[in-house]
Amino acid sequence: MKYSEEVRPGEKIRLDDYDTSRSCGLTKEEAREKADELGREMGELQELLFAAGDTALLIVLQGRDTSGKDGAIRFILNHTNVQSCRVAPFKVPTAEELSHDFLWRVHRQTPPKGGVTIFNRSHYEDVLVVRVAGLAPEKVWSKRYGQINAFEELLSASGTVVLKFFLNISKKEQEERLLDREKDPVKAWKLSVDDWKGRDQWDDFTRAYEDALTRCSTEAAPWRIIAADRKWFRDLAIAECIVETLRPMKKAWMESLESLGREQKAELEAFRASRGA
Ligand code: AMP
Ligand code: MG
Questions:
Q1: In this structure, which ligand is nearest to the CA of 126?
Q2: How far apart are CA 146 and CA 68, in angstroms?
């Protein structure tokens, strides 16, 4: 079962066509159980990815405010070894970052081989908020789609698996989550006037997201649309996609680790023999 919806290269996306509360007939309990099972497999695959050291995994999380980026990160980190997994958040650029090209701050955060990095927002902000809020002229941001595709192609050709998730929530669900934050003293710190400003520009962000999804879904790095109104379904869809992407690499990783293991053992035996033990 495919719980996430992959955008094919060249496919024109209209977000109205996507159900934000999709759950494929699963109950919360069923989805949580499946997600935990996949989470365990994800952890095992990540250990192999780390040990084999020939592949990197970049997970890009994009979505409107309250779409669940932090929650998805918590789910992934709960199931992975934090030693080789990091999170890179992208905020309003600093003066130094702005004095470079828009990919400068992004490229240096990409994962090394054997590592996993989760982008909490990403270079896509440079064609989303930058476009909607008019932070750069159209002639600047409109070139960025191609520049992003070339960048992701480079990462992919260099051994990085790029998984991009758009967490798709409805306007109604967002309102509920924002109002919940106000009521919860532990979550109220997350409140920001920008969230409500973003709601006024909901349709502009929709157009900007549709263009990013349409123009930056490539063979090397397709977008996946995740129905995110239900947190438990969101986690399941993300876990499934990560596991299904890594699972086909397992055999080669095992073989390379076994052959490495044999070499290490032979070396140890030679060492013992040389000592006459
Ligand atoms: P948060 O994810 O709630 O911590 O907020 C981070 C804020 O930084 C969001 O409002 C983003 O839109 C903003 N942001 C991230 N990247 C950029 C960028 N390249 N240009 C302008 N604002 C950005
Ligand atoms: Mg925020």
A1: 1
A2: 28
**Residues 6+ positions from 185 with CB-CB distance below 8 Å:** none
Q: Which domains does the chain have, with CATH numbers?
A: 5-276 (3.40.50.300)
> How many Å lie between the centroid of ligand 1 and the Cα of residue 92?
5
pLDDT in tens, 13-63: 999 999 999 999 999 999 999 999 999 999 999 999 999 999 999 999 999
Do residues 167 and 69 touch, judged by C-beta distance below 8 A? yes
Could you tell me if the CB of 87 is within 6 A of ligand 1?
A: no
Contact by Cβ (8 Å): 35, 268: no
SS3 letters across 115-142: CEEEEECCHHHHHCHHHHCCCCCHHHHC
pTM above 0.85, yes or no: yes
Q: Decide whether any atom of ligand 1 lies within 6 Å of the 154 Cβ.
A: no
> Ligand 2 centroid vs 195 CA: distance in angstroms?
6
Cα–Cα distance, 216 to 182 (Å, whole number): 35
Cα 127 to ligand 1 centre (Å): 12
Q: How many A from CA of 120 to the centre of ligand 1? A: 10
30 CB burial (10 A radius; 0-12, 13-18, 19+): middle
Structure tokens at 10: 């060249």
Q: What atom of ligand 1 comes closest to residue 198's alpha carbon?
A: 10
